[in-house]
Description:
CATH topology of the largest domain in chain B: Rossmann fold
Helix content of chain A: 55-70%
Strand order of the largest sheet of chain A: 1-2
Number of helices of chain A: 17
CATH superfamily of the largest domain in chain B: Response regulator
Helix content of chain B: 40-55%
Oligomer: heterotetramer
Structural class of chain A: mainly alpha
Number of strands of chain A: 2
Number of strands of chain B: 12
Radius of gyration of chain B: 22 Å
Shape of chain A: globular
Number of helices of chain B: 15
Number of domains of chain B: 2
Number of domains of chain A: 1
Strand content of chain B: 15-25%
CATH class of chain A: Mainly Alpha
CATH architecture of chain A: Orthogonal Bundle
Order of helices and strands of chain A: HHHHHHHEHHHHEHHHHHH
Largest sheet of chain B: 7 strands, mixed
Amino acid sequence: MPPHDLLPDGNRRGRRWAKLASLIVLITLLAVVPPAMNSYDQYLITLTLVYAITTLGLNVLIGWTGQLSLAHAGVFGLGAYLSTILIQHGWGFVPSLLVAGLGSAIVGGLVVFPALRFSGFTLAVASLAFASVIVQLFDNGGSVTGGGGGLAVPVFQFSGLSQTMSTYYVTLISTVLCFVVAHRMRHLRFGRVAFSIRDTEIAAVVSGIRVVRYKVFVFAFAAFLGAIGGALYAQLETFIFPVMFSTNTLVLMLVMLFLGGASSLYGPIFGAIFAVVMVELLQSFGSYQDLLYGLLLMLVIGVLPGGMASLPERLRTSHLLGRAVRGVASRFGRGRQDEATAASPVPPTATGSSLVDDPGDGVESGVA
Amino acid sequence: MMTFNGHRRRRAAAAVTALAVGSLLAACGSTTSNASGSGSGSSSSSSSVPGITSNTITIGATEPITGKAATAGQGLEAGIKIATQYINAHGGVNGKKINAIILDDGFIQSREIANIRQLVSQDHVYAIVDPAGSQGIAGTWDFMKQAGTPMWGPISPSDPKLPNVYLLVASRTAQQEVAIDYFAKQGLTRIAAIGEDDDLGLSLKDALAQQVPKHPGMKVVANETLPVSTSDVSAAVLAVKNANPQALIISTNNTSVGLILKEMGNLGLHIPAYADQGAANTGGVGAVGPAGSAANGFLGGLQVDLPTSNTQAVQTWRAQAQQYSGPQGLSAFSLQTYMQEMAFVEVLKRMGSDYSWSNFQKTANGLASNPITLGALPPIACGPLPDGHTCGNQSEIAKFDATTQTWSVIQGFTAPQS
Amino acid sequence: MLQYIINGLQSGSWYSLLAVSIVIVMKASDVPNFAVANMGLVGAFLAYSFVSAHLPFGVAVVLGLLGAALFGVIIDRAVIQRLGDKGHFPLLLMTIGISLSLAAALELIWGTNSLSLNAPWSNKTVHLAGQIINWDGIVTIATGLVIAIAITWFFHTTAGVRMRAVAENRSAARLVGVRISRVSGLAWGIGTAVAALAMILQTESSVLSYTAGDALLVPAFVAATAAGFTSPVGAYVAGLVIGVLENLTGGYISTALQSVVALVVVVLILLLRPSGFTRTALARREV
Amino acid sequence: MAESPAKGTGDVGGSIAWDDVSVAFGSNQVLDGVSLSFSSGFNGLIGPNGAGKTTCFNVASGFVAPSSGQVRLNGTDVRGLSAVKRSRAGLARTFQTPRLVLEMTVLENVLVGTERQHRAGHVREVLSFPRARREARELADMSMDLLRRFGLEGAAGQRAGSLSLGSQKLVEVARALATQSTVLLLDEPAAGLSASDTSAMVDGLHQLVEGTSLCVVIVEHDLQLIMSLCSSVAVLDFGRIISQGTPEMILQDKAVVDAYLGAGFATGD
């Protein structure tokens, strides 16, 4: 039970129902509308959901727990390759999805070793190197991975549905499950612990939180989500090769995370929509599209540090649009909680915090 | 008649508007607007063939018009536009004008896949003609097969042996095999190879494995693999030099080819070096430009005749291309897609008024007995599967003269020795 | 063997110079500059344009470096300082944004074709101990060494000491009257000029294109990390080690593995010896 | 309504002791053979700036390794135990500058301290098992009770970042109490607090500690607070203990007056 539900607030229960109802409407629409669309639009929506799951993993890692690990594109690829190879060996798609997720969780969890020793950029670079080792494995995997030439993905299909729609429905179900679990985690003990580790690791330690254990879990969980995204991505693209999981993909993930709103639960969804729509929108700009993309990224970081998820709160507190948005927001029943947390800027992180408050003691040291 | 896709922008704008509302429902908003945007298009022709109306035939392509391969992509785009213009100015095909939708993929593989999906399922093109980007294109085989849309003349992937895919020109592997045969004829037996760590390197490995054993005494003395997009080729060239080869075959992007030639010059390694059309960029400056004087004597493969050639076919193209206002109109890439689209139109003409998929298949698979000869390309002689969809696997070899900055053909269209 | 080592020292010097640039910027403004290679490319493209305008190579390079330094100061003033102390993540992401925008701008201005930036010594070789050595290799290695020494010396001048003071403790430095914005601008100027030198040397010996920085960024960052983001000398040495390891791997094991082996070795060194190649690293990192 | 947090810890009195602890950073001898022991109730640790008070806490929490000596927590040597293990063995502390998650609510911040009390695992909690729900409610009630003692129940749903620094310090004390530890180290809890916040703190601490076996050690410059609250006080100067005893004894001690209090204090200024 989320702790804020324990607070006396007459409206809260009503708001929760409104929220739940709008969520159910949304999911129903997502289940019913896409079959009527053409396969290109189905592809784009599926891609958006795949991106959302993947970025959610990165959010748990970076946005919630403050671990600047950059191995996520590699883990994403690992999910894609593992599931594809398993399917080639006669596995069903859904078992391969789960095993790919769990297998990648174990491998992704290995990044925790540098994470326990390093923080901040050292971890970033070490994990980046880890990711490039993973991609090198795809490259040098011989006939198992198809090497640099890539691997054709055996695409699974429900009878009576097209390939794209089959992938879409599995992706939709995965997205809903992942976000429901993440929502629970975010508002329960796990979320509190993760935020404590991110902002005040030392306070977490003296509160008796087993930080190492949590970090191991967070790295593994993030890798699990990344790999699920990767496995679905492979089904969607039907052909995978190592370059697809290079640093460019990592940059895309970071952009989705921070533009959507790191640390906010729904940030990854906004980020994914943005990434997909943006590419569509900028198509006709030719050579200028990369420039616009980069400048837009700079602009958003500069003026909207909480990402798009913080936009409603921003508008609400601003004078002009405030009243209108407040009205809409209360009608749709978005809880105060989400915006309050989403609105706060990106975590200040990185290098472990100084322990000693008394400058007279003159000692600075990290948590062992 | 060229159109840029109008409702892509409209749909995206609608989606962005929905997004700005800022609620979770934005996701839904964008999807529903997508549905309404495309629904009108799909309902227009239910029984007839996609992309065909009473007065137009719509074809599509995805090219790397921006990004790392922009020079090639702009040339490929130019050829399609020039051919379309020419055909429409001369009455079109059986009275129908060609409408070519060309999308930019920025040489990003996932964009190529998305573009092909858009062309087929949203823009309802009749066929994909001359798309580029070998690895991304391979990611669309499955989708194309399900959609049953012909893919005519994709630029240099290997043959997927699918009923709807027709390769018109020699693949990379076939070109490299021709080069191996050429070296054998010259009495060169110690062959070295440098490939990139992707499909480019893979095609070279295939060529070496298939063709070298056919020449007694020939052996591969060095076989180096470069990381993708490296700028440091020195270790690979040094390893090649230490193996003391008599000839070198390169299969990398053309910047790396240039760097390898330059490094060879620096190290005093003066042996014949060969790269296929994509890598040597015959007719362009991609590889030989940066190499400078070290590119003298460099051998390049040709899938299509040199753009400077004086044959009738090339002259006709050149007259058109000189009118073209965009970039890269006079490049070899332009000539290649121009010729391939001409061949596609020839198939349409031979089909008469029946544009059905089965008639396309029948007509194209029958080209073996009555090939299309356009000049500039070897005869296009498709046949039934399994091997018939590589419609022409002959290639030329040209030599570069660094002082005059020109290529000249030293061996005409030849197929690999079987 | 000797040849591989010399080639390794050459590519290592490119990494070293970029790593030194990363360290300088990190020291003064606490920003991991992921745009370092593309910012350096601005200088290289400017130098190319000056050479094309028939200026002597040396003059063109100096003007290119000055242009790059100015560009660095502008980026610092216009973008980085505005973000202030918003934390590492936004700044990191901002430099990624700068990098993306710059690559696109360079492509738009100078095109996608590879260009040749020719120095007087380009394509000239010398025979030494039975080996053929390129002049550009010798020039690159020597320049790297000179810059490493110069930067080390710089950190002992007044301005350098200020920069170190800022690196040690920003608020304390402010208290004793160091103008942090000025120090930050100085660091971005010098850092970008050093990066431009790296990219000029690299593109002079290969080709100049808007993607030339991509392959250098990760090794440079690994080198900077190995130096704990604090020691220019450590970054310089680490860059050379990576370059030599790459070339030896390429020569004796496999060219396909050359990039990854060097990375793995450095990361293993970090894991076994968290202080990296320098002693001061430990103290800095755990602050 | 949950019972007072410290009551669950049994009758064994909480205690903490430093045995001949020395700490040096380079040539700087910060602690020089410090021997101290505190038991149940309120204890004070005072001394001038730079005397080594916070270092004593850091040694006890396991953040600074002493060059010699040991720390005993409830009679047990904790050498070799990590900071987390020491915390789980019953040691809680606060910091001079409050370390809260500013974007979480006040209540959530206090709940961070209840980590050790959770019996149901995360999976059960995510799946909303009845036992996990009941437990969450109980812990929330207990945390609310703590906040109420400090007069903060009204702020429970607010973001911690919106609170004044003084209130944040109270929240941090509440979080430390929520761990239900036997030993509580408070590092300058009243520094920077308004008079009303200080009295809220003192009242709350009184209510929660009276009648329990909790051992509280307070580092504080507000001597009035120390003298009124504590039954035992130790004075640290240049890394050495120069006096330990009841507040009355300390006030009389000439060494203390010379080193720290100044002449005015002893005369009741």
